[in-house]
Specification:
By secondary structure, this protein is an alpha/beta fold. The protein has two domains: 210 residues, 3-Layer(aba) Sandwich (Rossmann fold), CATH 3.40.50; 107 residues, 2-Layer Sandwich (Hypothetical Protein Yjia, Chain: A,domain 2). It is 30% helix and 26% strand.
Length: 333
């Protein structure tokens, strides 16, 4: 008897496009399916995995590299770990790639591994596009690759764009990828059945874009000017000091700092705070309450070009609340 293959949705998109928000939306609004999630982080400190709302036993986080290159074997291993769990019967898988991942080698991984071919099937490749930052990202080769390989393009954050600017943006997307479906969203919100359960992936279409993908001929190199650095501290942060520092930082270095994200422990606050930024756009909101036995630790990641890692780490640690200062705050080396 043939086993039913588990459908896989690959979610890509450039830094800060709203991938984790979309994954959480799908997990929250799905109709009871058991969904396994693999999250890939570019930096050495994981943030996104902690923000996923799925049962933590069904989430695997792959850090410190892109699953399109240096940690592709980790992707295969992670998928197989989820498939082989006896306590969770998965109905589908979602792969959230790093914002710097080229989707072609990721797809190649699923098409080239015989064991995976017998157990899973690619259902769709979904690419989020940040409408607010599209113009400064469109010349990046990885951003264009992500758009080009998409079966479904989610044009996100359209509330931040003038109405008359949406159609020209979609024409650019259509010039890069003439066959993908395009939908418009705010905050990555859509009907779940628009995405999950709709088989859009086509191997003939993929081979038309990348004829050598099954022979491992895809030429992929990262932009070496893009790096990441991270910092952690168990000392509570002063919220006013942090707010001043981060706003001054984006005013001075917003063009080079492409992405910041973190889970923050503010002095006197019972809840975690989740911080995100894309270039000059900042967003912070309260998250879940800290548990009584939980170590309260702030973790923060910077991704960008020509980063002054030591200066960024020092600036963050200077936001520690005076009462909370203890000699335990350490940059992540």
């Amino acid at each position: 008897m043939l086993l039913k293959k588990i459908p896989v949705t690959v979610i890509t998109g450039f830094l800060g496009a709203g991938k984790t928000t979309l994954v959480n939306h799908l997990l929250t609004h799905n109709t009871g399916a058991n969904i396994g999630v693999i999250v890939n982080e570019f930096g050495e400190v994981g943030i996104d995995g902690e923000l996923i709302v799925a049962d933590e036993e069904a989430v695997i986080e792959i850090r410190n590299g892109c699953i399109c290159c240096t940690v592709r074997t980790d992707l295969v291993a992670g998928v197989k770990v989820l498939l082989e769990r006896s306590d969770i019967k998965l109905d589908r898988l979602i792969i959230e790639t790093s914002g710097l991942a080229d989707p072609a080698p990721v797809l190649q991984t699923f098409l080239a591994d015989t064991d995976l071919l017998n157990r899973v099937e690619l259902e769709s490749v979904v690419t989020l596009v940040d409408a607010a930052n599209f113009q400064r990202q469109i010349d990046d080769g990885i951003a264009r690759e992500q758009i080009g390989f998409a079966d479904l393009i989610v044009l996100n954050k359209i509330d931040l764009l003038n109405t008359d600017g949406i159609a020209p943006l979609e024409r650019v997307l259509r010039a890069i990828n003439p066959v993908a479906t395009i939908i418009r969203t705010n905050n990555s919100e859509m009907a779940v059945d628009t995405l999950l359960g709709v088989h859009r992936f086509s191997l003939p279409n993929l081979l038309a874009i990348e004829p050598g993908i099954l022979e491992d001929e895809h030429d992929h190199e990262h932009d070496n000017s893009i790096t990441s650095c991270a910092v952690e501290t168990s000392n509570a942060l002063d919220p006013d000091c942090f707010n001043r520092w981060v706003n001054q930082l984006v005013q001075r270095q917003g063009q080079n700092i492409m992405r910041m994200k973190g889970v923050l422990n503010f002095h006197g606050e019972a809840r975690q705070f989740y911080f995100h930024s894309v270039h000059m756009l900042l967003d912070a909101k309260p998250g879940r309450r800290w548990q009584s036995a939980e170590a309260r630790q702030s973790r923060f990641v910077f991704i960008g070009r020509h980063l002054d890692s030591a200066g960024l780490q020092r600036g963050f640690l200077d936001c520690v609340h005076e009462i909370s200062r203890r000699p335990v705050a350490q940059p992540v080396l």
